[in-house]
Amino acid sequence: MFKSRIISLAAAVMVLPALALTAPAIGQQKITIGVSLAQDDNPFYIAMLRGIRARAEELGWDVATVSANEDKLKQINGVQDLIARGVKGILISPIDAVGVNAAYDAAAAARIPIVSVARGSASPSQTIHVAMDEKQIGRDIAEWTAKRLGGKGKVALLMGPSGAPTFKNLGDGYSEVMAKYPGIEIVFRGDGPLTRERGVKQAEDVLVANPGLAAIYAANDDVALGAMQAVNAANRKGKTLVTGMNGVPPALRAVKEENLAMTVELNPAEWGRLGVDVLASFLKGAILPRGQAA
User: pTM score, two decimals?
Assistant: First the structure.
């Protein structure tokens, strides 16, 4: 059986140059910030919102939230609603790097800073992006996997939504490393929603097509837990290695029980706190230059 592992990773900060926005002066009035995350029921975003609320409370700020649930139009409308409510800044994890650009443009037009957390946007109206080194994390997962496989075997990649560059970057980093191992063959690479149901279905299909599959890379823990379910049902536990990402409690439990081979613990609550701090720095006038970490 493969030895399981949890890798802990702190969120890194990538800062993009701000638009020609003037940092709002902070007076004594109550500050309200808006939050629009890609999903409401994903454990990763639940933890992130918890971190946002905790840090905002420490600063004496109020938090207004809107739902998106992987619906691009709903996310755009939600951000516009936050703007209409007069928030001083917005934290957003965009569903799509291009598909919700109208939300960023609306914030810029209202001179409200909009900070991307985790997922980023291609919009020039994005103020700052709090991100991780996505390709490097993909490389690290691949290197760990390749060593556990002894440099041999068939591998499947269950990627995330096609419109979110985060998941493409993770997969590209993973594929880059696997290409260095001639004994490893990537037999499947598919995009899709970050749900356990999709993990079950795609893993089942790949296992039928490749009965001796050595490993499954999953874009997040929900997909990984679904893939793990399919692997166990096919009596491949300990034979097909499944890796996850995010470090949500069910995945951490599965790793300790040696069902899931590995997950990357990103600490989304701390990431949420960091997003608030980056926004606070902007509101105070401390606009971060390119490449500077918060």
Answer: 0.76
